[in-house]
Specification:
162 residues; Rossmann fold; two-stranded parallel ribbon; 10 helices; 4 strands; 52% helix; 9% strand
Length: 162
Amino acid sequence: MFDELFNKLETNEISASGFRTTISKRLGFNLTGADFDRGWCDLYLDPYNGIEQLLIDLKHKYRLVALTNTNIIHNKVWRLKYAGILKHFEKIFSSHEMETRKPEEKAYRIVLNYLQCKPAETIFIDDNADNIMGANKLGIPTILVISQEQMRKELQKFKLLN
């Protein structure tokens, strides 16, 4: 269960070692830091087929930035695993570096300030309804991703894809 401790890890309010220790105690495990991290990072799947081409297509006309809730332990893994995808983004905003996370208003404001855009001039895409609601509260148009096909159709409705 992702609770306040997890949120604190994602906003850099607790150290990785403090998180490992607390979770290990909760679960009754006695793992090395490396073993813990290996298990903790084993959740990353392969990218969706076609996602890189989609990013390439969008990048020709639009600025792409990513806003991700993540933590220092995961950061080491996903930045390498998804390097081929991430290279298409102008900037990656990570919650543990920003010390705020989606759906907190501050996270979206940091990105909007970076882009020098008004909320209505952007589109936020996410697979988490809470994050979508957070963006909507600021007036940011959104797409709740359920599947790659559905996301493409939504992007076409926004006239971002042919």
